[in-house]
């Protein structure tokens, strides 16, 4: 068994089981990838991939276990290289960060700008996904760290550290009755159609839970996963919304206003997600410290068990 075989297998899986896309990413021929994966299957005496003719249609049950182990091995290899790189090229390298669209677009923008200025030799690779995807990517070692609001239980090899709160506000279209009220409560807000984050997101869960807490069932006009979409539909008059305050820019968001003195919805805690035992380059600790002053090197090392 060789690292090349494991690398090719992981690339095929990451390319949605497309040999052609994997070949392009690896700069090798399609027959070469197919031959090497076949050799791995013969050595292990198991079918890893499900084939229909010349097409790969899935992964076998045994193959899922092999892929998981292959990812772990490749992660260890990357960490070994990182140890050497940290000694020889301390200020140069690549940092892989997984986060949600909302965090990347709004909450993290200024932090990343500052980090990029101070670390010109570091290439930041941002991958956006759902919270579940982010947790899995970190657990598998595919990402150095993740940034998201954590919905519940984590894998045993992953830890989440509190980073910062995201505050929420109520927005309404221009001329809306809520904007004329002195101090609109949650019952006032519930009288109007609501444009809300999908409950798969933390923002959606926080909003809907707050209405349920007050025994209210607002009319849901629509659900979305993107703050820009929510703002556009509020501006179009479809309803009001509870949204992250950081996502609203009064200077550029035309057609909407923050409702002053409205009922205060709970904030959401954003966490940094790390794999236990993972080796992090020095500049990764710099980014963590920039994200939250509480995430100093000693705290992080204690949490991941290094």
> What structural category characterises the helix and strand content?
alpha/beta
Distance between the termini: 29 Å
The biggest sheet, with number of strands, parallel, antiparallel or mixed sense and barrel status, is: 5 strands, mixed
**What portion of residues is helical?**
40-55%
**How does the overall form come out from the CA principal axes?**
globular
- Order of secondary-structure elements: HHHEEHEHHEHEEEHEHEHEEEHH
- pLDDT < 50 runs, ≥5 residues: none
By CATH, the architecture of the largest domain is named 3-Layer(aba) Sandwich
Number of separate domains: 3
* Radius of gyration of CA atoms, rounded to a whole number: 23 Å
CATH homology superfamily of the largest domain: Periplasmic binding protein-like II
Helix count, DSSP H or I runs of 4 or more residues: 12
Q: Determine the strand fraction and express it as a percent band.
A: 15-25%
- CATH-assigned fold name of the largest domain: D-Maltodextrin-Binding Protein, domain 2
Description of the molecule:
By secondary structure, the protein is an alpha/beta fold. The protein folds into three domains: about 70 residues, Orthogonal Bundle (Arc Repressor Mutant, subunit A), CATH 1.10.10.10; about 110 residues, 3-Layer(aba) Sandwich (D-Maltodextrin-Binding Protein, domain 2), CATH 3.40.190; about 100 residues, Periplasmic binding protein-like II (D-Maltodextrin-Binding Protein, domain 2), CATH 3.40.190.10. It contains twelve helices and twelve strands. The strands form four sheets. A five-stranded mixed β-sheet has the order 4-3-5-12-6, with helices on both faces. It has a three-stranded antiparallel β-sheet with strand order 10-7-11, with helices on one face. The protein starts with a helix and ends with a helix. The model has no long low-confidence stretch (mean pLDDT about 90).
């Amino acid at each position: 068994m060789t690292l090349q075989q494991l690398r090719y297998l992981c690339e095929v899986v990451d390319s949605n089981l497309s040999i052609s896309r994997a070949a392009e990413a690896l700069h090798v021929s399609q027959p070469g990838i197919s031959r090497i994966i076949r050799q791995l299957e013969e050595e292990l005496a198991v079918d890893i991939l499900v084939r229909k003719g010349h097409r790969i249609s899935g992964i076998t049950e045994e193959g899922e276990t092999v892929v998981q182990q292959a990812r772990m091995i490749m992660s260890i290899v990357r960490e070994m290289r990182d140890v050497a790189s940290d000694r020889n090229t301390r200020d140069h390298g690549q940092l892989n960060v997984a986060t949600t669209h909302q965090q990347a677009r709004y909450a993290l923008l200024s932090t990343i700008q500052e980090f990029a200025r101070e670390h010109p030799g570091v290439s930041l690779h941002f991958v956006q996904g759902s919270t579940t995807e982010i947790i899995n990517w970190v657990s598998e070692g595919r990402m150095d760290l993740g940034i998201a609001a954590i919905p519940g239980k984590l894998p045993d090899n992953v830890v989440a550290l509190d980073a910062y709160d995201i505050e929420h506000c109520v927005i309404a279209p221009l001329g809306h009755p809520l904007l004329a009220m002195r101090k609109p409560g949650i019952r006032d807000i519930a009288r109007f159609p609501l444009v809300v984050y999908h409950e798969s997101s933390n923002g959606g869960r926080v909003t809907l839970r707050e209405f349920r807490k007050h025994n209210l069932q607002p009319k849901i006009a629509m659900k979305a996963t993107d703050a820009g979409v929510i703002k556009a539909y509020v501006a179009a008059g479809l309803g009001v919304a509870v949204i992250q305050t950081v996502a609203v820019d009064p200077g550029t968001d035309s057609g909407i206003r923050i409702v002053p003195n409205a009922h205060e919805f709970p904030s959401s805690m954003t966490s940094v997600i790390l794999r236990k035992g993972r080796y992090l380059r020095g500049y990764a600790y710099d980014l963590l410290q920039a994200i939250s002053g509480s995430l100093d090197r000693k705290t992080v090392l204690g949490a991941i068990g290094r």
